[in-house]
Amino acid sequence: MSAEPRINDRIRVPEVRLVGPNGEQVGIVPIAKALEIARESDLDLVEVAPTARPPVARLMDYGKFKYESAMKAREARKNQAHTVIKEIKLRPKIDPHDYETKKGHVVRFLKAGDKVKVTIMFRGREQSRPELGYRLLQRLADDVEELGFVESRPKLDGRNMIMVIGPHKKKAARGQETSGTA
Length: 182
What we know:
Elements: E1 15-19, E2 25-30, H1 31-40, E3 44-49, E4 56-60, H2 62-78, E5 85-90, H3 96-111, E6 115-121, H4 130-143, E7 148-157, E8 160-167, H5 171-175
């Protein structure tokens, strides 16, 4: 069954409950009479409630209806907030300068309104010292706490330790200040 409503000659029922172009109830009429009324008023007969008994059909300009519903859907997509998760990978024995570079990337992502997934990769004997990774993640969270908050605490996942930092202000709220943003 298609998502499109049946229109005009595709409606295969003996009678329909007809609704006029302005929303007024015409009543239950045979399908031939409903199609005749639609042709006279230069409109389409559109089945709006096919499961009702008898099915409900409405007189409308179907092309205009499809265009307006497409425009509403497009507008809704435009106003939707897109959540982007950026990822930064670190090692437990990171050089101070490399740490500052990676921290700069995290700051840039948070200022852009994106979430940041920070992953610390452990190799070899580093796996027996997860507290080093935990301390590094805590240090990073403390360094960027004015821009973002820890959304998920550091947790060990196999050879990696993962933490997610979210921005204080969401992308959608950057343009218009809304109350309740944390």
